[in-house]
Amino acid sequence: MIVITNTIRVKEGFGKAMSERFAHAQSVKEMPGFVRMEVWLGKSKEGEGEELKVSTVWQDEASFRNWTSSESFRESHRGQGGNDAILGSSLNQYELVVSPLNEAE
């Protein structure tokens, strides 16, 4: 299992509104291998604005790659380049190595 975190820095006051977009993201939820999504809001580490941490959990990397190469992914991200509330973003990938759910394995 893997988690992909997309950390999106936005201007102060825009975090809640931007998080609503993820609340209505249905196409990712229908992708094979998708497990769950969580969106966290906090202060930016850079000291300006807010930070959204969008975490998606996937069964495996192939499932995530299928999502990023899908038409649904392209459609859901269309027009995001023109959003002037976004200050920057970074994408990271992690593999689940310890969890109470997998301790018996």
Tally of alpha and pi helices = 3
- Total number of strands: 4
Query: Strand fraction band?
Result: 35-45%
Look at the structure and give the mean pLDDT.
88
Q: Widest sheet: strand order?
A: 2-3-1-4
Q: What is the CA-based Rg, rounded? A: 15 Å
Distance between the termini: 14 Å
Describe the protein's architecture and organization.
With 105 residues, the chain is α+β, with helices and mostly antiparallel strands. It has helices spanning 15-23, 61-68, 71-77; strands at residues 2-10, 34-43, 50-58, 86-95. Strands 2-3-1-4 form a 4-stranded antiparallel β-sheet. A hairpin with a 6-residue loop joins strand 2 and strand 3 (50-58). It comes from Paenibacillus chibensis. GO terms for molecular function: monooxygenase activity.
